[in-house]
């Protein structure tokens, strides 16, 4: 009796739960369908070069979802958080900016000139730029910004950006009172001189770092910048939006800057709202959020959004995922072993099924959309080939000698390795068991070890304690692979970390990378990077997995929203929402 | 009693000290540093090491601890590495939100669990008892995550009764009374979800200690004397069942401050739980230590209050 | 309590067993737990799929005749993983709660019964452990001792026993002042005897409630700790990590087989232990008539 009662109750409750969860069919029909199919609905940039004219009446607020709260460090020289970075894009400005094709075009600077010898760079500023507090922007603000990065007391991470300037090292070491290579020619002209030709110099100085106001930050000793909570939480920039209110953990509200040099932005308010990826579909559909990054959602979710009249845009992101080998270990020093592993991992299936096709397989450590990425057919695509993989392993001396399914070397030691990977990226977490299964097929026994990111970096990057690891790498607009692949960036000493985590040391590659930085001629650089890619591809120093797409969902009422790789907020001053 | 109180408070300071030493050690044993995971490869290893040097990362642990405790005695809890703000400000921004939700959940769960537990015990093996048992076990067996999403899906999305996430309607700019109403509206679902687990737990303990008391002779005597059932249950039995209930309640107060990570995440409620969790992942040492001090004080206080309450409920319990 | 030693007479033990057997709910609990253990032990015999057999062509398939409970995000058979998952979840849930109870109950009973300085010292140590922030300790230990199931059980037990210690101590404080304990004292029974024979049985109800909660808590905590690198290594399944992998709106809405069966197993384990405990309590209660 009692048992039956309880059984019935359990069933009833569980069924109620399942029912509540399942009653979703209604969603699609409740919301009116958009007349046009959202998939074909190109972002409205097609209509006119400068964007459509906004109608007379408009809802003047755009709500943009963030997955984490900005920390409030709103100073371009101290920032190290992507969510703060988003706010900075709207409130601060750069000398140059990237156009749709990633060419550098005038922004705060109305023109710039690079000398023949590629050593001198001169910017001419517009004369009508104002800080949010009404002060004019001049060349001395620019000089102040870049000098600060090399100041001996500076605590932020950006010294590398100016390191190539003449006299930067001297200033950084306290042997000079400013960077010799920065000269204020007049109020609106500034000159930068480089020690030697440096290809990414233009983008590093021109477009990657925003200018900060000297009359505000110059008042504070640079060593105490990090304690200026007030100044950072209520930043004075010269970008198209002014920060109106910042409520930690909840939202950041920006208002259009009336005196923006390029004319006030079309939308009065932009609100960055901290949201949750699990409920964002509901918020997008109900109109509480206008723009959200939905890269981590599955096709089914994206379809739900489309069915509800939400527009979707996708483009290649700036990160790629890879599996690194510890090249310090004897087992991985044989190129054939690394190639065998690459041949065994079914990247195509991984992309097709796990990422549902929303990623590009890569064979070189560059973004597939970069100008430097070699054309198709140049690189070995390592299409899955188990026979070849086994043959390569056998050549390298690894064969299954005792019939246990695991290959052994001549000394009878089995091929057992550990794959370490961090938490935080669901797809990457799921790819680990796939790699494990793939490698099992060629007789390699992989143990999986998951850990949080800080712990992984400590073990893998700082102490070099790993066999294989999974990680993503985030790439810059300039394809320069030197920070990750040059032997100078590698370290074998425990506790001494280097970005060349795998420990790749190749004199030929080093030389190519160095040469490629000495010219700004794109064709010359392209040829050198092709050489580099072929070399790395042949060496198989990492198994490059895929570069996932970024997917953004946005309200069908939003116009002129046209993001692309490295241009997530492209022409934000043109965005507007109609009623 | 006063002497006891003074002694306990003195001991509390000693415990506080022990806890900070041990946890400080643990934090420093945990691999990782606050910068590496936040910087990209364009920042060279030298620059990163220089930054770590400047914050004293490479100092020996005892020196680090000494510096920290010295500053604490001066009332300086340090600057958060991530928020670049005095840690006390970071905590204070979120503390009211946590107290709001936590107090709501505590009141709600107590208001439901104690009467429900009592009824379950008095009407043992009734439909109500089974229902309560099954529901409370579902509550403790299925992560709050599912329950939270279910409520959002049903009440916020389909029926549009409650807001989906956050603490306020962004961009509405409500003031005064409207603001209070807005926050209250946003508060409902997270509070219910947070209360779920506590209700289930508290209800089980209430039921079991009531049943335990019912077996005792004095309850039988009371019943035999012809006292009404309500008097027996509420006056005699409940009072004697209170000791474990107080204990459990006193242990639930600290959980509010740390145990609400999932609820805060689902509902994007800007509270202490999620702040603590990310502070640990970010290795924001000053923030972790300040949060630790705060929770330690809360735990010690609630334990002390519980100990004092035992003596109030049961006068035979004495502390010399 | 007493061992069934004296032949001929009806011992307390056999009375208790007879009572227990009559209690349908308690027997139900025993049978279910036994079945769950049996199923997880015999997992390889009960299923034709391998525990970690990935099938990317068959991801998140709804239950069908090949996969009775569908497949997960890598196309692995959910039923198979549930069977194997029981090994981790039941071991961790049951063992961790047993250890917590052994430590917590003895510490709590001693502190409560002896009182004074002993109580003070023990409870202040308990306070210190109670204040340890769970994740900080977990991350530090994960790096120091690495992943293994025994480490995991050890850590859960070490950090969680304080709760039952406080509960038991509080009850003992009150119980020891009751007349029958005073009587036992005046009869000259040793303190240990009094604690074991007279004090602890009166805290049994709270201990049982704690046990059920601790099992559910252990099963779910295992997932969180494994996720931080301190528990079972992926891809080894457990009910907890299957539940946490399923945490998304999409799964909740469309893929019930990814969370309802997992949650149900945790639920049925906990509720069975609860019935079993209730049955035990009634069977051992000297005041109850047969």
List key phrases describing it.
heterotrimer, A: 579 residues, alpha+beta, 8-stranded mixed beta sheet, 4-stranded mixed beta sheet, 19 helices, 20 strands, C: 290 residues, mainly alpha, MetI-like fold, 13 helices, 70% helix, globular, disordered N terminus
Description:
- With 579 residues, chain A is an alpha+beta fold.
- Helices cover 30% and strands 19% of the residues of chain A.
- Chain A contains 19 helices and 20 strands.
- In chain A, strands 11, 12, 13, 14, 15, 16, 17 and 18 form an 8-stranded mixed beta sheet that branches.
- In chain A, a hairpin with a 2-residue loop joins β6 (182-186) and β7 (189-193).
- Helices cover 75% and strands 0% of the residues of chain B.
- The longest helix of chain B has 39 residues, at 176-214.
- Chain C is built from 13 helices and no strands.
- Chain C is globular and about 75 Å long.
- With 290 residues, chain C is mostly helical.
- Chain C has helices at 12-22, 24-41, 43-46, 78-114, 116-130, 134-145, 149-175, 179-186, 191-199, 204-227, 239-245, 249-254, 260-284.
- The longest helix of chain C is centred in the first third of the chain and has 37 residues, at 78-114.
- Chains in contact: A-B, A-C, B-C.
- At the B-C interface, α1, α5, α6, α7 and α9 of B face α5, α6, α7, α10 and α12 of C.
**Main sheet record of chain C:** none
Which regions of chain C are unreliable across 5 or more consecutive residues at pLDDT < 50?
A: 1-8
CATH architecture of chain C: Orthogonal Bundle
What oligomeric state is this?
heterotrimer
CATH-assigned homologous superfamily of chain C: MetI-like
What does the main sheet of chain A amount to? 8 strands, mixed
- Low-pLDDT parts of chain A are 14-58
């Amino acid at each position: 009796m009692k048992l039956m009662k309880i059984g019935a109750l359990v069933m009833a409750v569980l069924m109620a739960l399942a029912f509540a969860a399942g009653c979703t069919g209604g969603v699609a029909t409740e919301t009116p369908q958009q007349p046009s199919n959202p998939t074909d609905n190109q972002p409205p940039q097609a209509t006119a070069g400068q964007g459509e004219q906004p109608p007379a009446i408009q809802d003047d607020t755009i709500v943009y979802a963030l997955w984490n709260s900005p920390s409030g460090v709103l100073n371009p020289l101290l920032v190290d958080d992507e969510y703060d970075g988003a706010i900075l894009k709207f409130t601060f400005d750069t000398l140059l900016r990237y156009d749709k094709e990633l060419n550098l075009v005038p922004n705060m600077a109305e023109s710039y000139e690079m000398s023949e010898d590629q050593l001198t760079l001169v910017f001419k500023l517009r004369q009508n730029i104002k800080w949010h507090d009404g002060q004019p922007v001049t060349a001395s603000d620019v000089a102040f910004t870049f000098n600060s990065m090399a100041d001996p007391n500076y605590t932020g991470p950006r010294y590398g950006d100016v390191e190539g300037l003449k006299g930067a090292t001297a200033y950084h070491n306290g042997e000079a009172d400013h960077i010799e290579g920065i000269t204020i020619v007049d109020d609106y002209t500034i000159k930068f001189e480089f020690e030697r030709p440096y290809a990414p110099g233009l983008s590093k100085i021109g477009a990657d770092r925003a200018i900060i106001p000297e009359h505000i930050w110059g008042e504070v000793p640079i060593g105490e910048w990090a304690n200026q909570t007030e100044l950072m939480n209520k930043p004075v920039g010269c970008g198209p939006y002014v920060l109106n209110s910042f409520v930690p953990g909840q939202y950041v509200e920006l208002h259009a800057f009336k005196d923006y040099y390029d004319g006030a932005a079309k939308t009065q308010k932009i609100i960055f709202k901290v949201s949750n990826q699990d409920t964002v579909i509901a918020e997008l559909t109900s109109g509480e959020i206008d723009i959200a990054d939905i890269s981590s959602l599955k096709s089914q979710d994206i379809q739900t959004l489309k069915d509800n009249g939400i527009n979707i845009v996708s483009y290649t992101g700036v990160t790629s995922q890879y599996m690194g080998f510890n090249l310090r270990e004897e087992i991985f020093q044989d190129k054939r072993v690394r190639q065998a592993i690459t041949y065994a991992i079914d990247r195509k299936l991984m992309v097709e099924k796990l990422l549902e096709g929303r990623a590009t397989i890569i064979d070189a450590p560059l973004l597939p959309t970069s100008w430097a990425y070699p054309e198709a057919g140049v690189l070995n695509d390592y299409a899955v080939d188990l026979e070849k993989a086994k043959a390569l392993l056998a050549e390298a001396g690894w064969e299954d000698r005792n019939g246990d399914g695991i290959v052994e070397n001549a000394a009878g030691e089995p091929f057992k390795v550990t794959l370490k990977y961090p938490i935080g990226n669901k797809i990457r977490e799921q790819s680990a068991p796939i790699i494990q299964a793939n490698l099992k097929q060629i007789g390699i026994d992989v143990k999986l070890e998951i850990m949080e990111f800080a712990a992984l970096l400590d073990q893998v990057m700082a102490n070099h304690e790993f066999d294989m690891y999974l990680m993503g790498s985030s790439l810059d607009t300039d394809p320069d692979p030197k920070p990750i692949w040059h032997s100078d960036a590698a370290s074998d000493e425990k506790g001494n970390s280097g970005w060349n985590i795998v420990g790749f040391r190749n004199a030929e590659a080093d030389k190519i990378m160095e040469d490629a930085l000495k010219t700004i001629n794109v064709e010359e650089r392209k040829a050198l990077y092709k050489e580099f890619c072929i070399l790395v591809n042949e060496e198989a120093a990492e198994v490059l997995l895929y570069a996932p797409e970024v997917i953004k969902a946005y309200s069908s009422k939003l116009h002129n929203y046209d993001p692309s790789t490295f241009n997530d907020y492209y022409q934000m001053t043109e965005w507007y929402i109609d009623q | 009693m006063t002497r006891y109180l003074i002694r306990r408070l003195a001991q509390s300071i000693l415990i506080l000290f022990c806890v900070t030493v041990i946890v400080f050690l643990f934090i420093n044993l945990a691999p990782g540093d606050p910068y590496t995971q936040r910087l990209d490869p364009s920042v060279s290893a030298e620059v990163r090491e220089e930054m770590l040097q400047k914050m004293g990362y490479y100092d020996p642990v005892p020196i680090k601890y000494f510096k920290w405790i010295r500053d604490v005695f001066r009332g300086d809890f340090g600057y958060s590495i991530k928020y670049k703000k005095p840690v006390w400000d970071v905590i204070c921004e979120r503390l009211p939100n946590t107290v709001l939700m936590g107090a709501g959940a505590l009141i709600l769960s107590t208001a439901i669990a104690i009467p429900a537990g009592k009824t379950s015990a008095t009407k043992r093996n009734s439909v109500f008892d089974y229902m309560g048992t099954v529901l409370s076990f579902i509550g403790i067996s299925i992560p709050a995550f599912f329950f939270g999403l279910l409520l959002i899906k049903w009440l916020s999305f389909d029926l549009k009764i409650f807001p989906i996430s956050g603490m306020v309607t962004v961009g509405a700019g409500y003031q005064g009374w409207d603001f209070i109403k807005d926050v209250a509206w946003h508060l409902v679902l997270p509070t219910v979800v947070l209360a779920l687990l506590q209700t289930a737990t508290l209800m089980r303990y209430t039921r079991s200690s009531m049943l335990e008391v019912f077996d005792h002779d004095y309850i039988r005597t009371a019943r035999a004397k012809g006292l009404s059932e309500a008097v027996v249950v509420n006056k005699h039995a409940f009072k004697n069942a209170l000791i474990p209930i107080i204990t459990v309640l006193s242990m639930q107060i600290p959980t509010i401050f740390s145990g609400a990570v999932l609820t805060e995440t689902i509902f994007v409620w800007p509270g202490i739980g999620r702040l603590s969790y990310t502070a640990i992942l970010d290795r924001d040492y000053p923030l972790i230590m300040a949060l630790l001090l705060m929770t330690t004080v809360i735990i010690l206080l609630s334990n002390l209050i519980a100990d004092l309450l035992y003596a109030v409920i049961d006068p035979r319990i004495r502390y010399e | 309590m007493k061992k069934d030693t004296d032949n001929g007479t009806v011992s307390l033990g056999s009375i208790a067993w007879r009572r227990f057997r009559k209690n349908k709910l308690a027997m139900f609990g025993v049978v279910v737990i036994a079945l769950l253990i049996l199923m997880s032990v015999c997992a390889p015999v009960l299923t034709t799929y391998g525990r970690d057999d990935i099938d990317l062509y068959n991801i998140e398939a709804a239950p069908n005749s090949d996969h009775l409970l569908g497949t997960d995000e890598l196309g692995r058979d959910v039923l198979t993983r549930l069977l194997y998952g029981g090994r981790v979840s039941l071991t961790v849930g049951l063992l961790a709660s047993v250890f917590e109870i052994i430590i917590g109950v003895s510490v709590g009973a001693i502190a409560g019964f002896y009182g004074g300085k002993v109580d003070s010292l023990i409870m202040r140590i308990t306070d210190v452990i109670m204040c340890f922030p769970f994740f900080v300790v977990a991350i530090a230990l994960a790096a120091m001792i690495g992943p293994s199931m025994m480490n995991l059980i050890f850590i859960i037990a070490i950090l969680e026993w304080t709760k039952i210690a406080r509960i038991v101590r509080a009850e003992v404080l009150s119980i020891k002042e009751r007349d029958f304990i005073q009587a036992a004292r005046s009869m000259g029974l040793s303190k240990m005897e009094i604690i074991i024979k007279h004090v602890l049985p009166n805290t049994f109800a709270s201990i049982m409630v704690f046990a059920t909660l601790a099992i559910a808590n252990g099963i779910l905590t295992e997932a969180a700790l494994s996720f931080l690198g301190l528990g079972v290594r992926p891809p080894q399944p457990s009910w907890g990590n299957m539940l946490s992998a399923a945490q998304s709106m999409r799964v909740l809405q469309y893929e019930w087989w990814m969370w309802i069966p997992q949650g149900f197993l945790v639920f049925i384990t906990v509720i069975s232990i609860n019935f079993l405990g209730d049955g035990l309590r009634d069977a051992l209660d000297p005041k109850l008539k047969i």
